[in-house]
Amino acid sequence: xxxxxxxxxxxxxxxxxxxxxxxxxxxxxxxxxxxxxxxxxxxxxxxxxxxxxxxxxxxxxxxxxxxxxxxxxxxxxxxxxxxxxxxxxxxxxxxxxxxxxxxxxxxxxxxxxxxxxxxxxxxxxxxxxxxxxxxxxxxxxxxxxxxxxxxxxxxxxxxxxxxxxxxxxxxxxxxxxxxxxxxxxxxxxxxxxxxxxxxxxxxxxxxxxxxxxxxxxxxxxxxxxxxxxxxxxxxxxxxxxxxxxxxxxxxxxxxxxxxxxxxxxxxxxxxxxxxxxxxxxxxxxxxxxxxxxxxxxxxxxxxxxxxxx
Length: 309
Ligand code: FDA
Known about the structure:
CATH topology of the largest domain: TIM Barrel
CATH architecture of the largest domain: Alpha-Beta Barrel
Strand order of the largest sheet: 1-8-7-6-5-4-3-2
Helix content: 40-55%
Low-confidence stretches: none
Shape: globular
Number of strands: 8
Number of domains: 2
Bound molecules: dihydroflavine-adenine dinucleotide
Radius of gyration: 19 Å
Strand content: 5-15%
Distance between the termini: 34 Å
Protein backbone atom coordinates (compact mmCIF):
# COMPACT_ATOMS: atom_id res chain seq x y z
CA UNK A 1 0.00 0.00 0.00
CA UNK A 2 2.79 2.38 1.04
CA UNK A 3 4.72 1.31 -2.07
CA UNK A 4 1.81 2.19 -4.33
CA UNK A 5 1.28 5.55 -2.60
CA UNK A 6 4.91 6.53 -2.85
CA UNK A 7 5.03 5.54 -6.50
CA UNK A 8 1.89 7.53 -7.32
CA UNK A 9 3.29 10.54 -5.45
CA UNK A 10 6.60 10.55 -7.33
CA UNK A 11 5.02 9.83 -10.71
CA UNK A 12 2.73 12.83 -10.26
CA UNK A 13 5.71 15.04 -9.32
CA UNK A 14 7.48 13.90 -12.50
CA UNK A 15 5.30 16.40 -14.40
CA UNK A 16 6.18 19.36 -12.15
CA UNK A 17 8.02 22.08 -14.07
CA UNK A 18 9.26 24.06 -10.99
CA UNK A 19 10.66 20.86 -9.46
CA UNK A 20 12.29 19.91 -12.75
CA UNK A 21 13.97 23.35 -12.90
CA UNK A 22 15.16 23.04 -9.31
CA UNK A 23 16.51 19.52 -9.89
CA UNK A 24 18.26 20.63 -13.09
CA UNK A 25 20.18 23.30 -11.18
CA UNK A 26 21.81 20.77 -8.85
CA UNK A 27 21.23 17.26 -10.15
CA UNK A 28 23.39 16.82 -13.20
CA UNK A 29 26.53 18.80 -12.50
CA UNK A 30 29.69 16.80 -11.71
CA UNK A 31 28.97 14.83 -8.54
CA UNK A 32 25.29 15.94 -8.60
CA UNK A 33 22.71 13.60 -7.06
CA UNK A 34 21.17 12.52 -10.38
CA UNK A 35 24.57 11.28 -11.57
CA UNK A 36 24.09 8.24 -9.36
CA UNK A 37 21.38 7.01 -11.78
CA UNK A 38 22.16 8.80 -15.05
CA UNK A 39 25.54 8.83 -16.80
CA UNK A 40 25.26 12.51 -17.73
CA UNK A 41 23.67 14.69 -20.37
CA UNK A 42 25.98 13.87 -23.29
CA UNK A 43 26.92 10.76 -25.25
CA UNK A 44 30.53 11.34 -24.20
CA UNK A 45 29.42 11.06 -20.54
CA UNK A 46 27.70 7.76 -21.37
CA UNK A 47 30.73 6.38 -23.23
CA UNK A 48 33.04 7.24 -20.36
CA UNK A 49 30.76 5.43 -17.88
CA UNK A 50 30.29 2.57 -20.34
CA UNK A 51 34.04 2.03 -20.45
CA UNK A 52 34.18 1.75 -16.65
CA UNK A 53 31.25 -0.67 -16.50
CA UNK A 54 32.47 -2.97 -19.27
CA UNK A 55 35.89 -2.94 -17.60
CA UNK A 56 34.18 -4.39 -14.52
CA UNK A 57 32.69 -7.23 -16.60
CA UNK A 58 29.16 -5.83 -16.97
CA UNK A 59 27.16 -5.95 -20.20
CA UNK A 60 25.32 -2.81 -21.28
CA UNK A 61 22.29 -1.40 -22.97
CA UNK A 62 22.41 2.34 -23.60
CA UNK A 63 19.41 4.62 -23.54
CA UNK A 64 19.02 8.19 -24.70
CA UNK A 65 16.50 9.59 -22.27
CA UNK A 66 13.27 10.98 -23.60
CA UNK A 67 9.64 9.92 -23.87
CA UNK A 68 6.38 11.33 -25.17
CA UNK A 69 8.04 13.78 -27.56
CA UNK A 70 6.03 16.89 -28.50
CA UNK A 71 6.09 16.44 -32.29
CA UNK A 72 7.04 14.03 -35.04
CA UNK A 73 10.03 16.28 -35.83
CA UNK A 74 11.28 15.73 -32.27
CA UNK A 75 10.81 11.98 -32.80
CA UNK A 76 12.88 12.12 -35.96
CA UNK A 77 15.59 14.04 -34.12
CA UNK A 78 15.55 11.39 -31.35
CA UNK A 79 15.95 8.66 -33.99
CA UNK A 80 18.83 10.63 -35.58
CA UNK A 81 20.43 10.77 -32.14
CA UNK A 82 20.13 6.99 -31.78
CA UNK A 83 21.61 6.42 -35.23
CA UNK A 84 24.62 8.58 -34.27
CA UNK A 85 24.85 6.77 -30.94
CA UNK A 86 24.95 3.32 -32.57
CA UNK A 87 27.74 4.47 -34.90
CA UNK A 88 29.73 6.02 -32.06
CA UNK A 89 29.37 2.89 -29.92
CA UNK A 90 30.80 0.82 -32.74
CA UNK A 91 33.69 3.28 -33.22
CA UNK A 92 34.50 2.93 -29.51
CA UNK A 93 34.50 -0.86 -29.65
CA UNK A 94 31.23 -1.19 -27.71
CA UNK A 95 28.57 -3.67 -28.82
CA UNK A 96 25.79 -1.45 -30.17
CA UNK A 97 22.96 -2.39 -27.84
CA UNK A 98 20.31 0.15 -27.02
CA UNK A 99 16.93 0.43 -25.31
CA UNK A 100 14.34 2.74 -26.86
CA UNK A 101 10.85 3.95 -26.04
CA UNK A 102 8.41 4.03 -28.94
CA UNK A 103 6.75 7.21 -27.65
CA UNK A 104 10.16 8.84 -28.10
CA UNK A 105 10.20 7.63 -31.71
CA UNK A 106 6.76 9.12 -32.43
CA UNK A 107 4.22 6.40 -31.55
CA UNK A 108 1.73 8.94 -30.18
CA UNK A 109 1.86 11.32 -33.14
CA UNK A 110 2.34 9.05 -36.13
CA UNK A 111 2.65 5.26 -35.70
CA UNK A 112 3.86 4.77 -39.30
CA UNK A 113 6.67 7.32 -38.82
CA UNK A 114 7.54 5.67 -35.51
CA UNK A 115 7.86 2.31 -37.26
CA UNK A 116 10.06 3.88 -39.94
CA UNK A 117 12.24 5.39 -37.22
CA UNK A 118 12.65 2.04 -35.47
CA UNK A 119 13.52 0.32 -38.78
CA UNK A 120 16.08 3.06 -39.43
CA UNK A 121 17.80 2.26 -36.12
CA UNK A 122 17.88 -1.44 -36.90
CA UNK A 123 19.33 -0.78 -40.35
CA UNK A 124 21.93 1.64 -38.96
CA UNK A 125 22.99 -0.64 -36.13
CA UNK A 126 24.69 -3.30 -38.24
CA UNK A 127 24.75 -7.04 -37.66
CA UNK A 128 25.90 -6.88 -34.05
CA UNK A 129 23.28 -4.40 -32.87
CA UNK A 130 20.33 -5.20 -30.65
CA UNK A 131 17.43 -2.86 -30.04
CA UNK A 132 15.29 -3.53 -26.98
CA UNK A 133 11.92 -1.81 -27.12
CA UNK A 134 11.02 -0.66 -23.61
CA UNK A 135 7.42 -1.06 -22.50
CA UNK A 136 5.56 2.04 -21.38
CA UNK A 137 2.08 2.74 -20.02
CA UNK A 138 -0.54 0.02 -20.66
CA UNK A 139 -2.17 2.23 -23.33
CA UNK A 140 0.83 1.47 -25.53
CA UNK A 141 1.19 -2.28 -25.02
CA UNK A 142 -0.87 -3.36 -28.05
CA UNK A 143 0.71 -0.91 -30.51
CA UNK A 144 4.17 -1.80 -29.18
CA UNK A 145 3.71 -5.56 -29.47
CA UNK A 146 2.06 -5.23 -32.89
CA UNK A 147 4.92 -3.10 -34.21
CA UNK A 148 7.65 -5.38 -32.85
CA UNK A 149 5.84 -8.43 -34.24
CA UNK A 150 5.57 -6.84 -37.71
CA UNK A 151 9.27 -6.07 -37.71
CA UNK A 152 10.09 -9.58 -36.49
CA UNK A 153 7.93 -11.18 -39.17
CA UNK A 154 9.85 -9.12 -41.76
CA UNK A 155 12.97 -11.01 -40.73
CA UNK A 156 14.61 -8.61 -38.26
CA UNK A 157 16.05 -10.71 -35.45
CA UNK A 158 17.92 -7.96 -33.62
CA UNK A 159 14.90 -6.61 -31.81
CA UNK A 160 13.41 -7.58 -28.46
CA UNK A 161 10.61 -6.40 -26.24
CA UNK A 162 9.80 -5.81 -22.56
CA UNK A 163 6.88 -7.29 -20.64
CA UNK A 164 5.62 -6.02 -17.28
CA UNK A 165 4.62 -8.53 -14.59
CA UNK A 166 2.11 -6.14 -12.98
CA UNK A 167 -0.28 -6.30 -15.98
CA UNK A 168 -2.95 -9.01 -15.83
CA UNK A 169 -2.59 -9.54 -19.58
CA UNK A 170 1.12 -10.39 -19.53
CA UNK A 171 0.87 -14.23 -19.43
CA UNK A 172 -1.04 -14.05 -22.74
CA UNK A 173 1.44 -11.58 -24.21
CA UNK A 174 4.31 -13.82 -23.13
CA UNK A 175 2.72 -16.82 -24.84
CA UNK A 176 2.40 -14.70 -28.01
CA UNK A 177 6.01 -13.50 -28.11
CA UNK A 178 7.43 -16.85 -26.99
CA UNK A 179 5.58 -18.57 -29.85
CA UNK A 180 7.28 -16.18 -32.28
CA UNK A 181 10.68 -16.46 -30.56
CA UNK A 182 11.02 -12.74 -29.79
CA UNK A 183 13.44 -12.11 -26.91
CA UNK A 184 11.83 -10.80 -23.72
CA UNK A 185 13.04 -8.62 -20.89
CA UNK A 186 10.75 -9.18 -17.92
CA UNK A 187 10.31 -6.38 -15.37
CA UNK A 188 7.75 -5.62 -12.66
CA UNK A 189 6.44 -2.43 -14.32
CA UNK A 190 7.04 1.21 -13.46
CA UNK A 191 3.97 3.22 -14.55
CA UNK A 192 0.86 4.44 -12.77
CA UNK A 193 -1.82 1.92 -13.74
CA UNK A 194 -5.50 1.37 -12.82
CA UNK A 195 -6.41 -1.63 -10.75
CA UNK A 196 -8.52 -2.98 -13.60
CA UNK A 197 -5.40 -3.54 -15.71
CA UNK A 198 -2.61 -4.14 -13.16
CA UNK A 199 -2.15 -5.77 -9.76
CA UNK A 200 -2.41 -3.00 -7.17
CA UNK A 201 -0.69 -5.05 -4.45
CA UNK A 202 3.08 -5.60 -4.53
CA UNK A 203 2.88 -9.22 -3.30
CA UNK A 204 0.74 -10.11 -6.34
CA UNK A 205 3.19 -8.40 -8.71
CA UNK A 206 6.02 -10.37 -7.15
CA UNK A 207 4.12 -13.67 -7.46
CA UNK A 208 3.39 -12.88 -11.11
CA UNK A 209 7.07 -12.05 -11.72
CA UNK A 210 8.15 -15.41 -10.27
CA UNK A 211 5.59 -17.32 -12.39
CA UNK A 212 6.58 -15.50 -15.58
CA UNK A 213 10.26 -16.05 -14.80
CA UNK A 214 9.59 -19.79 -14.60
CA UNK A 215 7.83 -19.74 -17.98
CA UNK A 216 10.66 -17.77 -19.57
CA UNK A 217 13.37 -19.99 -18.17
CA UNK A 218 11.53 -23.07 -19.40
CA UNK A 219 10.45 -21.84 -22.83
CA UNK A 220 12.59 -18.93 -24.05
CA UNK A 221 15.99 -18.99 -25.78
CA UNK A 222 17.71 -16.24 -23.89
CA UNK A 223 15.49 -14.39 -21.40
CA UNK A 224 16.44 -11.22 -19.54
CA UNK A 225 15.22 -10.76 -15.99
CA UNK A 226 15.23 -7.09 -15.02
CA UNK A 227 15.00 -6.70 -11.26
CA UNK A 228 16.95 -5.57 -8.22
CA UNK A 229 14.79 -7.57 -5.90
CA UNK A 230 16.88 -10.22 -4.09
CA UNK A 231 13.78 -12.44 -3.71
CA UNK A 232 13.08 -12.39 -7.45
CA UNK A 233 16.74 -13.09 -8.16
CA UNK A 234 16.85 -16.00 -5.70
CA UNK A 235 13.68 -17.46 -7.23
CA UNK A 236 15.16 -17.16 -10.74
CA UNK A 237 18.42 -18.78 -9.71
CA UNK A 238 16.56 -21.66 -8.05
CA UNK A 239 14.26 -22.15 -11.07
CA UNK A 240 17.20 -22.11 -13.50
CA UNK A 241 19.06 -24.70 -11.39
CA UNK A 242 16.00 -26.90 -11.20
CA UNK A 243 15.45 -26.75 -14.97
CA UNK A 244 19.18 -27.27 -15.56
CA UNK A 245 19.73 -24.00 -17.43
CA UNK A 246 23.31 -22.83 -17.71
CA UNK A 247 24.23 -19.47 -16.19
CA UNK A 248 25.15 -18.02 -19.58
CA UNK A 249 21.81 -18.88 -21.18
CA UNK A 250 19.93 -15.97 -19.58
CA UNK A 251 20.82 -12.66 -18.01
CA UNK A 252 19.90 -10.40 -15.14
CA UNK A 253 19.46 -6.74 -15.91
CA UNK A 254 19.66 -3.79 -13.53
CA UNK A 255 19.55 -0.04 -13.75
CA UNK A 256 22.72 2.01 -13.58
CA UNK A 257 23.44 3.03 -9.99
CA UNK A 258 20.95 0.63 -8.41
CA UNK A 259 22.09 -2.29 -6.22
CA UNK A 260 25.69 -2.20 -7.44
CA UNK A 261 26.47 -4.72 -4.67
CA UNK A 262 24.07 -7.26 -6.20
CA UNK A 263 25.42 -6.64 -9.69
CA UNK A 264 28.93 -7.46 -8.46
CA UNK A 265 27.92 -10.56 -6.49
CA UNK A 266 25.97 -12.00 -9.44
CA UNK A 267 29.01 -11.47 -11.67
CA UNK A 268 31.17 -13.21 -9.06
CA UNK A 269 28.75 -16.15 -9.11
CA UNK A 270 29.15 -16.50 -12.88
CA UNK A 271 25.87 -14.90 -14.04
CA UNK A 272 25.57 -12.41 -16.87
CA UNK A 273 24.51 -8.94 -15.73
CA UNK A 274 23.49 -6.16 -18.08
CA UNK A 275 23.23 -2.57 -16.90
CA UNK A 276 20.70 -0.15 -18.40
CA UNK A 277 22.73 3.01 -18.80
CA UNK A 278 20.76 6.18 -19.55
CA UNK A 279 22.01 9.61 -20.55
CA UNK A 280 20.53 12.79 -21.98
CA UNK A 281 19.06 16.08 -20.86
CA UNK A 282 15.48 14.75 -20.53
CA UNK A 283 16.34 12.89 -17.35
CA UNK A 284 13.80 14.20 -14.88
CA UNK A 285 10.84 11.74 -15.44
CA UNK A 286 13.25 8.77 -15.41
CA UNK A 287 14.86 10.07 -12.24
CA UNK A 288 11.48 10.50 -10.53
CA UNK A 289 10.47 6.91 -11.38
CA UNK A 290 13.63 5.75 -9.57
CA UNK A 291 12.67 7.88 -6.55
CA UNK A 292 9.18 6.34 -6.52
CA UNK A 293 10.61 2.81 -6.54
CA UNK A 294 12.55 3.34 -3.37
CA UNK A 295 11.81 6.15 -0.92
CA UNK A 296 15.29 5.65 0.60
CA UNK A 297 16.62 7.20 -2.62
CA UNK A 298 15.00 10.45 -1.55
CA UNK A 299 17.15 10.44 1.60
CA UNK A 300 20.17 9.85 -0.60
CA UNK A 301 19.23 12.91 -2.70
CA UNK A 302 18.44 15.01 0.38
CA UNK A 303 21.82 14.15 1.90
CA UNK A 304 23.59 15.02 -1.38
CA UNK A 305 21.80 18.38 -1.51
CA UNK A 306 22.68 19.22 2.10
CA UNK A 307 26.26 18.26 1.41
CA UNK A 308 26.36 20.47 -1.71
CA UNK A 309 24.95 23.45 0.16
P1 FDA B 1 11.25 -3.51 -6.33
O1 FDA B 1 10.83 -2.14 -6.81
O2 FDA B 1 10.20 -4.36 -5.73
O3 FDA B 1 12.43 -3.34 -5.35
C1 FDA B 1 13.05 -4.45 -4.72
C2 FDA B 1 14.36 -3.99 -4.12
O4 FDA B 1 15.23 -3.58 -5.17
C3 FDA B 1 14.27 -2.78 -3.21
O5 FDA B 1 13.94 -3.12 -1.90
C4 FDA B 1 15.65 -2.20 -3.35
O6 FDA B 1 16.57 -2.94 -2.57
C5 FDA B 1 15.97 -2.43 -4.78
N1 FDA B 1 15.57 -1.31 -5.64
C6 FDA B 1 14.59 -1.30 -6.56
N2 FDA B 1 14.51 -0.13 -7.22
C7 FDA B 1 15.46 0.64 -6.68
C8 FDA B 1 15.88 1.97 -6.92
N3 FDA B 1 15.32 2.75 -7.84
N4 FDA B 1 16.92 2.43 -6.18
C9 FDA B 1 17.53 1.66 -5.25
N5 FDA B 1 17.16 0.39 -4.98
C10 FDA B 1 16.14 -0.12 -5.67
N6 FDA B 1 9.74 -0.76 -16.31
C11 FDA B 1 8.81 -0.60 -17.28
O7 FDA B 1 7.64 -0.37 -16.97
N7 FDA B 1 9.17 -0.71 -18.60
C12 FDA B 1 10.43 -1.01 -18.98
O8 FDA B 1 10.71 -1.11 -20.18
C13 FDA B 1 11.42 -1.18 -17.96
N8 FDA B 1 12.71 -1.48 -18.27
C14 FDA B 1 13.59 -1.80 -17.26
C15 FDA B 1 14.88 -2.21 -17.58
C16 FDA B 1 15.74 -2.62 -16.57
C17 FDA B 1 17.11 -3.09 -16.93
C18 FDA B 1 15.31 -2.58 -15.21
C19 FDA B 1 16.20 -3.05 -14.10
C20 FDA B 1 14.07 -2.13 -14.90
C21 FDA B 1 13.19 -1.71 -15.91
N9 FDA B 1 11.93 -1.23 -15.60
C22 FDA B 1 11.02 -1.05 -16.62
C23 FDA B 1 11.60 -0.83 -14.22
C24 FDA B 1 10.90 -1.95 -13.47
O9 FDA B 1 9.61 -2.13 -13.97
C25 FDA B 1 10.80 -1.62 -11.97
O10 FDA B 1 10.07 -0.44 -11.79
C26 FDA B 1 12.13 -1.46 -11.28
O11 FDA B 1 13.09 -2.36 -11.77
C27 FDA B 1 11.97 -1.73 -9.77
O12 FDA B 1 11.50 -3.02 -9.56
P2 FDA B 1 12.41 -4.20 -8.92
O13 FDA B 1 12.09 -5.45 -9.63
O14 FDA B 1 13.81 -3.81 -8.97
O15 FDA B 1 11.90 -4.40 -7.47
